[in-house]
């Protein structure tokens, strides 16, 4: 697997500030706040796990860290593609934020595996961790994310295919923006499903903290992208 730290967008490419913060700016600020809170939670989480055994290579935590890295790094790629294509400043700002946050989180998960002395590539097919039963006593909506709808080696939920990514790369203007939002909404929905599945299978404070941060930030981005997509004519077949 590629070192996730290599995917961090160039800071020199950050979008310039353009007037009032607006709804996109609010999402960007909110996402950055979530990243900060995750960093703080990580520090406290390390203290709280000093007496706790590290996850094993076939654990939900390790599987989540490996698979969500792949998932996030595709999100970075999609965001960078639309930044090269669209001339809409709001989309530029939103895509930059998505690429930055997802690259940072992918790097964090890469670091977990290094700290746990686990290989970056697992010995099982991808998504195997999601086929295992939820923890006894899992509460609320997390308990619904059991093994019934997945099989080892299944595609990650929401992951775009090679042809879909190439369709985005080849498109221009509003068509490219519609393809991007169509793909990225699905992509975010898949990340929410994976995060919910992790919360049903783990009590590890560092990992569950990140999963909750993903749920919070990407749910807000889905709502925003849905509005922006509707303004451009709605989803496209891709």
UniProtKB/TrEMBL annotation:
Annotated ranges, domain DUF305: 61-229
Keyword Membrane belongs to the record: yes
Basic and acidic residues: bias regions: 139-148
InterPro entries, alphabetized: DUF305_CopM-like, Ferritin-like
Region described as Disordered: spans on this chain: 137-159
Pfam families the record matches: DUF305 (PF03713)
Highest taxon of the lineage: Bacteria
Keywords annotated in UniProt: Membrane, Transmembrane, Transmembrane helix
Ranges that cross the membrane: 20-44
PANTHER family, per the entry: SLL0788 PROTEIN (PTHR36933:SF1)
Name used for this protein in its record: DUF305 domain-containing protein
Organism listed in the record: Agromyces rhizosphaerae
